[in-house]
Amino acid sequence: MIPYNRNTAILLILFNRPDTIRKVFERIREVKPKKLYLAADGPRNEKEREECDAARAIVSCIDWDCDAIRLYQERNLGCDIHCYQAISWFFEQEPEGIILEDDCVPSLSFFGFCSTLLERYRNDERIGHIAGSNYQFGKKRGDGSYYFSNLTHVGGWAGWRRVWKNVRCDKNYPLFGRLNYLSSLPSHAPFQTHWNKYFGMANHNPDFCWDFRYAYTNLVNNRLSVIPNYNLISNIGCSDKATHYIKDYPFADIKNEEIDTILHPSFICPDVEADLYSQTKEYNSSRESLIKQDDVFYLKERLNTVTVNNHIKPKIPRIIHQIYEDMSGPTPLLQGISQSWKELNPDWEYRFWNKKDIDAFLGMYYPDLIPIYQAFPYDVQRWDAVRYLILYKIGGLYVDMDYECTENISPLLCETECAMGMEPRGNAVLRRMPYIVGNAFMATVPGHPYFKELIDAVFHDNKDRGALYPERSILDTTGPYMTTRVYDNSKYKEQVSLIPAELVAPLTRDEVLKVMDDEISEGLANKIENSFAIHYFLGSWYEQTKK
């Protein structure tokens, strides 16, 4: 086994998973670092506090000579923000070190591998990252114990302050995109659509995609990563409880290995073949699979045919609800979009709700909830909250004002008592979630128990959801994060039909912008043609978070 220099500091990032953190911490205990940094995110709600406390209790059992430095959050920051802040905090105090997450179990050789190479490449600007994971499935690259790569694998890794200090949103990123740099980089060119998407996210919002921002920093500075020829990290966290859960993730649970010595490679050059191999493994997996457009077309045609031939009528009341609280009324653009629901669904009643209507409704049916309703700090939270109350009491279909109907909606809602429209997969990717159960397209019979769960979550289960980040707080308390969380934990989820985004929200925000600029490719045209409705994600509520 490669000897570990105990003076090399370790950062352990944890949250709410005592089952996995126990295994990671046991490995750290075996090597006994002299400095251990512990960064723990806070609970998302009171129910989760017990799990967070259990995870923290495990890492409190330090029974060797060690300086333990802690950064424990009382409120939940979310995975991306928490990781980025924790690593920044670590490198503010240490010039170099090892970083582990709570579901990445290292081999004992990992620690010696990292400490040895941190020292070897300490002042070598050609090298920006040391990985612990190997995704070559037994294929050895080069003539050493490790090879060099243009990719930056994180989870279990080591790095330097000299690199991390430059990890930030790049104001020059638009130029990077215009130069089409990735198309000329052999290791990235076949997957440039994927990389451009994530690099764009990472450089436009500091709260998202810290790992891609880190990879981008190394790439544009022409730095290479060290990748071991043996897998030294086992990712045991790919369960449905994981923050970034991906079904059938190809790199989950790869057994970690031990090595006795390090043989340094003869040449410092990126192994393009290895990079292409690992990316092919990852991006051809179910992570990138989407419903094919011909399958969506088939599904749509089947729904229409079955409904017409069998004269099936929805169990859900034929009432379309839309809300616009401002008494001056919707903008001409929104009025035009809204008109599509009346024109294509003439056999449905249309109800428009303004502030006067909402106040009367609450006073008649939910007077006890008015104080909580009025206490929400943002208007959009009230707009969210009242839609659940309206549907629970009256039933019908609720759609946002920036939603256009493209087909009669009846076939979509036949034979169901409760239906929730999914958000586009691209939105889920942006939010680093496996999927998002939206709240902009919802239909139900009156009194459905799932909507009772939504109401309870909005009005009675938000005491521990802080407003450190307004946009996230809104999504988490009354918006799609909340509807997704309630669905995941619902006792009645088998009674809820999830409508694929391809049918009711086929376009991401970026694709909507292309449509508005008349940049409609054949692929976008097919998506629109195969849908029943289109959500334009105009997002006027975002301005509220800046006030």
How do the helices and strands line up, and which of them pair or pack?
Layout: E1 10-14, H1 18-31, E2 35-40, H2 46-59, E3 67-72, H3 79-93, E4 96-101, E5 104-106, H4 108-120, E6 127-131, E7 146-149, E8 156-160, H5 161-164, H6 173-178, H7 192-204, H8 210-220, E9 224-228, E10 233-235, H9 272-283, H10 293-310, E11 319-323, H11 332-344, E12 349-353, H12 355-365, H13 370-375, H14 379-394, E13 396-399, E14 403-405, E15 418-422, H15 425-430, E16 437-444, H16 449-460, H17 470-477, H18 480-489, E17 497-499, H19 501-504, H20 509-516, H21 522-529, E18 533-535
Parallel strand pairs: 1-2, 1-4, 2-3, 6-9, 11-12, 11-13, 15-17
Antiparallel strand pairs: 4-8, 5-10, 6-8, 7-9, 13-16, 14-18, 15-16
Helix pairs in contact: 1-2, 7-8, 14-16, 16-18
Keywords:
Spore Coat Polysaccharide Biosynthesis Protein SpsA, Chain A, alpha/beta, 21 helices, 547 residues, single chain, six-stranded mixed β-sheet, 41% helix, 2 domains, 18 strands
- Judged by helices, strands and strand pairing, the structural class is alpha/beta
Unreliable runs, pLDDT <50, ≥5 residues?
239-247, 285-299
Radius of gyration over all CA atoms, rounded: 26 Å
CATH H level of the largest domain: which superfamily? Spore Coat Polysaccharide Biosynthesis Protein SpsA, Chain A
Please report the number of helical segments: 21
- Name the strands of the widest sheet in spatial order: 3-2-1-4-8-6-9-7
Number of beta strands: 18
Report the CATH architecture of the largest domain.
Alpha-Beta Complex
Q: Give the overall average pLDDT.
A: 88
GO molecular function: mannosyltransferase activity
GO biological process, one term: mannosyl-inositol phosphorylceramide biosynthetic process
Protein name: Glycosyl transferase
Pfam family, one: Gly_transf_sug
